Please model this.
Amino acid sequence: MDKEYFLTKVLSCWSSFIRRVVFCVLRVGPIPTHIAVIMDGNRRYAKRKLLEEGAGHDAGAMALLNLIIYCYELGVKYITAYAFSIDNFRRKPSEVQKIMDLLKECMTVLAKIAKHHPIKVNFAGNLELLNAELRDEACKLMGATAEYSKFVVTICVCYCCTDDIVHSVEESCREKCYYHSYIGDSHDDDKDDDDKDDERHMINLVDIEKNMYMAVTPDPDILIRTGDKHRLSNFLQWQTCHSLLASLSTDWPEIGVWHLVKVVIDFQQNYDYFVRKRLQQL
Ligand SMILES: CC(C)=CCC/C(C)=C/CC/C(C)=C/COP(=O)(O)OP(=O)(O)O
Model:
């Protein structure tokens, strides 16, 4: 056997063994239910490594797939990734095309994984903005994995949180208008009935949250942003008001298992806060 191949195999078995041991130890404490990620720093990584720009996105896609596997092994139930914002359409056409090609490749890989593991795949965002072929692929994958619930991967494409809010308010208005025209106005003079009627026509928090693209997942416990930037970039700001923000200086393609471990330890050290906030929301 080739010596180099043998050494790589031994190292990979060893690191997978260490990872499993560390995950066992982490599982003694609370494990976050939902981790969301802003994958920043792909182009800077490519530049630093003297690679073509697209190679940074390739490495970023690989890093995402690895993180999905680590989260699955650790027992995190939901992972959500910001793959492409509506604003990203303003980037160079070649870069937009590169990310769309990677999206297609990721769909193929996730579809293969879902054949052997109960993984549900969601795409959140305005999918109307995708080309028809990608949109069909996305819908097919969502349909094929809809029954699974053990582990949920959500890829945010053509997504912006402000767009999600506007879309949800529009959807809620449509529902209420439908209700209004279907039930009809009450014509009696009873003030109590009128007040109840008004309430039924008003949009409330439950309507808005129910109609958001992200309604398929609970709010994230942790939001990780790489690339040494400390902003939300229009990603899940509605859903992250009580989330732990982990801003990492590493570029996305270099995120690894030890970053995940560190972030989860941070979550465990702040766990009382999350429990308190959750109880207040009930
Ligand atoms: C599912 C899927 C398609 C994932 C793989 C591709 C991937 C990592 C997409 C992220 C795209 C993006 C616009 C990242 C922002 O960082 P940037 O690249 O603009 O980095 P910079 O801050 O260095 O410019």
Observations:
- The CA atoms of residues 10 and 16 lie 10 Å apart.
- The radius of gyration is 22 Å.
- The first strand starts at residue 34 and ends at 38.
